[in-house]
Amino acid sequence: MSATGTAAVAQASVDLVDPHDCTDDPDKLATLEATHMALVRRGPDGRWRPALADRWTVSPDARTWTFELKPGVRCHDGAPADAEAVAWSVARMARPDMGATLGAPAVWAQYLAGARIEALSRSTVRIELDRPMADLPDVLGAGYVLSPGSDPDAPVGCGPYRIEDHVPGERLVLRAAPASAAVPAANPRLRFQRIACAAERAAALAAGTVQAATGLAGESARPLGAGPAVTVVEHLVPTAIIFLFNAARGPVRDARVRRALNLALNREDLVADVLGGAGRPLHGFVSPVHFGAAAATAGCDPDSAGRLLAEAGYGSGLELEVTCPTSLPDEAEALTAAVAAQLAPLGVSFRVERVEDRVDYANRVRLKRIGDLCVFDSSPMSTFRVLHEKIDSRVAGSWWQGYRNPEVEALVDRARATVGDAEREAIYRECHRLLQADPPWLYLYNHTRFAGLAGRHPDWRMRADGILDVAALPPV
């Protein structure tokens, strides 16, 4: 705890966004989860646990969900966080003007449109879907419950902390909510402070001007952890760094070419050369911490890659057009050059189109106006959402690029209707294996980052989704 009785958290950015925006930004999610609460929240392992909901049941066909709420919880304006507030909030997130993300509108509406949301009593809410969705918590985890009477431009939630002061883009000061919160606050006051530079965040933690810091780089974080005053943990960022294949036309429409390019890469070298070691190789469409991720089945095999290219008619060379942004990921240009260098011995070369405007870039990807490949990332922590929004040809979502695999799509349908977690996880593992054999993307890596906390906390870890859970933050 600082001298003022306030625990300070240093982040690269401090922004308050609409609670029903669709964001996977860890800084935005940390502040949202401090001030808001949904029916469910992720536990340390990334799996769903009760939050405002005390328990829930789902029908055998995965269409009807019934949630029993914790009693006595109130929003920060005093309004009850009851079934009426839940029903109103879920209906709000399902509106077509909500759930926007970069280049993609109404993300939540595609899952909740047509749902019947009903408060059966003050403490019971039922959601009836128009089709099975056994992974509904993957959506409702972003359905923060709001006070229906609060200002639409400044909606009030029921999280562990309430807003005391906010300077947009600079700091956010919070006070612990009353004891009626669904999840109690660990510290009486909390301040999120923007410090854009990772090295400066580490320096602030070392100096004691902040008590927690996220998004740290290894070169500044490791020395802190070696001493007695700070606990430092390394964690995986589950966002997948990839190249999307344009499977609608051109050479990578051929599954042999897509498979060959994946086999040709030495991902360990990419992590070393592009990230300075701050990452882990990615061998599938989701990270190793995602629900249903399977083990890698093949490593770097340039000989097999060459044979596949020859079978596809490209034994004498292949030029591919790559669409590349200059940010998000920030290393996109260096990554493209490194991938090109690894593929060159197979006679594969890149013709790169560079796009500086990142919003324009996202819109071009959404409109399928890319070359043979484009640099991209896949950020949802939900395996189901990645399959639905980016891989299923029947959905043809914003980031889908012409790929079609009927066997995977049949498994997605099975998973939708499979309410048992173990059985559904096995289905997703089979999807993972099939998408290793017939890849829709060029799989590259996940980043790794460091987080630090003042004091010695040997049991403290970052949550599996890479979000700082301030409600579980030890008193500091």
Model description:
This protein is an alpha+beta fold and 476 residues long. The chain has three domains: 108 residues, 3-Layer(aba) Sandwich (D-Maltodextrin-Binding Protein, domain 2), CATH 3.40.190.10; 122 residues, Dipeptide-binding Protein, Domain 1 (Dipeptide-binding Protein, domain 1); 209 residues, Dipeptide-binding Protein, domain 3 (Roll). The chain has 14 helices and 18 strands. The strands form three sheets. Strands 1, 8, 9, 10, 11, 12, 13, 14, 15, 16, 17 and 18 form a twelve-stranded mixed beta sheet that branches. A four-stranded antiparallel beta sheet has the order 4-5-7-6, with helices on one face. Helix 10 links the parallel strand 15 and strand 16. Helix 7 packs antiparallel against helix 9. It is globular. It starts with 6 loop residues before the first strand and ends in a 22-residue tail after the last strand. 48% of the residues are buried.
Structure keywords:
14 helices; 476 residues; 12-stranded mixed β-sheet; alpha+beta; 3 domains; Dipeptide-binding Protein, domain 3
Classify the fold: give the CATH topology of the largest domain.
Dipeptide-binding Protein, domain 3
Tell me, what's the shape?
globular
Rg from Cα: 23 Å
Unreliable residue runs: none
User: If classified by CATH, what would the architecture of the largest domain be?
Assistant: Roll
How many domains, in number, for the residues? Answer: 3
How many runs of DSSP E, i.e. beta strands?
18
CATH homologous superfamily (4th level) name of the largest domain? Dipeptide-binding Protein, Domain 3
Mean of residue pLDDT?
A: 96
H/I helix tally: 14
Give the CA-CA distance, first to last residue. Answer: 4 Å
Main location: periplasm
Pfam family, one: SBP_bac_5
Family: Belongs to the bacterial solute-binding protein 5 family.
Protein name: ABC transporter substrate-binding protein
